[in-house]
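Q: What changes when adenosine monophosphate is included in the input?
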Amino acid sequence: MKFSKLAQAYDKISKASGDAGKVPILADLFKRADDKTLEALAHFTLGEAVSPQLSDRLGIGPGAIRDALAKISGDDPSEIEGRVKESGDMGEVAAEIVNGTDKLEVAELWKRINRVVERNEDRKQLVEHIFKNTTSAGAKYFARMVLNQMRIGVGEGTMERAIARAFKVDADSVQRLYAMTNDIGIAAREAKKGERALARANPILFQPYQFMNAQRVENAEEIFETFKDKQIIFDIKYDGVRLQIHIKSGRGGEIKLFSRRLNDDTASMPDVVEALKRSWKGKDAIIEGEAVAFDKSLKKKLPFQAVLMRRGRESEIEAKAKEIPLVLFVFDLLYDNGASLMDVPQRERRERLKKLFRETDRVRMTESIESNRAEDEERFFKRALKEKQEGLMAKDPAAIYEPGKRTDHWLKLKPAFETLDVVVVGGIWGSGRRRGLLSSLVIAVRDKGEFKTVGKVGTGFSEEMLKELTAKLKSKIIATRGLHVEIEPSMVIEVDFQGIQKTPRYSSGYALRIPRFKRERVDKSVREADTLERLVRLYKQAH
Ligand code: AMP
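A: The predicted holo structure follows.
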C-alpha cells in the first residue's frame, strides 16, 4: 500500500463523524493490508512515526520539517514559518509545497524511520527523502504524525474497535494485548490470527507492558471507603522515577530498564543494573520499582530534580552515577520464571518478590504496613513525609495487576495541596530580564486525544530552569505570532494553583487560578497528562 493512499484514507477518516463513521473505513484498510503493512499502518494511525520504545529518540521536530520544506520550495525557512502561522497547521503547508513522486510504501516508510532512529542516522536526509517520494497528502500526514497532531480523531479506543471489526475479534481482547505489549502493531498482527492468538496475552521479556496507574484520592477517608473493611497494604510512595525492569538471568543474562514512557533507559542507569545483578537471586523476571536519588553516603535522600539529572542521560553517565547514586525500591513482580503473575493477588506478588533478591543498600523493598486502622495510616503517612517521600500508596491485597489501566485497586495519597500534570502547548517570549526566554507557558489538559488550554504559567521557575525549558521547547515551536508561539505538545509539567474558574477564555472552558510551575515531568508522556475530566471533578469538589 502506498503511503499516499493511506493519507487519502486519513482525509476521509477525519471527515467521517464518530466511531460509526470512522471504524468501518479503518477496518476496511486493515483487512486489505498485508502483515507488514498492517503493523506499520496501525502505528501511523495512532500518530506513532517510530516504534514506541524509540519514541524519545525520534528527533524530528518542527525545525526539521520547516528546513526540508524550505529546501524543496527554495523559500527561506522564515517564509515557511509565516505560512504556518497563517494556516495554523504545518501539515497543510507541507501539502501545499510537496509534490513528490508517489513511490513511498507504508511498510517501507515504517522500516526506514525505525532504522534511521535506531542507528542515529541523519534525520534531515530522511525527511527530504520522504518529501521527495510522496504526494502532497502523504507529506501532510507525515508532518502531522511527527508533530503529534494527527487531527483525524482516532484514539486508542477507536483503533481497538476498528481492529476488532476487521478481524472479527473482541475489542477488549485487542485492548488487553495492546496494554500488554504497548505496541498497537503487535496487537493488530495477533488480532488478524484470531481470538485464540489474542487470548495468549502474557507479558513478554524485553517488550514493556503499559504500567498500571493509581487513582488519586484527596484524603485518607476515601481510601477506607473504597476498601471498606478490607486489610490494606500501605506502601510508601517514593519520590523518584518508576522503572519496569526486565531480567534475563544466568549466563548471557541481561537487564533492561524501561522508563514510565516505556522507552529503554538502561544506558543512563548502569549503577542500578549493577546493583540488581549483585542482589538478584531469581530466574527470568519482570519487576517494578522506583529509583530514588541519594547523596554519596546513601543516607540522605535528594530532591526529585536530582533523579532527573540521571534519567535519560547520554553523556557523563559514570560521573553522574557516582555523584548522584540511585537506590532502587522494588514493589511488584509481574513475571517469574516463564509465568505471568498479572492475575496473582497483590499480596502474593509482593511476598514472592521478597524471596527473589537479597536486600542491599542499593536494592530494597518498599516499606509497607498492612492494616485497616486510620491511626496506622496516619502515622505511616507522617513518616513518609518526614522521610521526604511523596506520600502513600494504598493497595488492595487481593487485586490483580491490570496493565494500561488507572484502577482503584491502587490509590495514591499526597499532601493536601493540588497539583496537575499539564501539557505545554504554547508560550510567550519574555521582555526585559527575560528577553530571549519563554517567560510564560500556555498549558493544557488532555481531552480525548486533544489538548484543551487551561491557563498560562509565568511563575515558579528559577532563571536557570527557564533557560533549560526554553532550550528544550525552542525546537518544538510550530508557529510564531508576535510574542506568542504555538508549541508541539510534547512536554509535561506539574503545576500547583489556588483554584479553578469557569471561563470562555480557554478552550477547556476552565482556567487555573494563579498556576505555578513546580517541575518538569520528564518521566511522563503527554498521553499521561491529567485530563479535562479530572479538572472538572476538582472544580465540582470545590464548588
Ligand atoms: P503518579 O506519578 O502521581 O501518577 O503516582 C503513581 C506513581 O507512584 C507510580 O507511577 C510510581 O512511579 C510511583 N510510586 C512510588 N512508590 C510507589 C509504590 N510503593 N508503589 C507503586 N508506585 C509507586
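Observations recorded in class: The mean pLDDT is 95.
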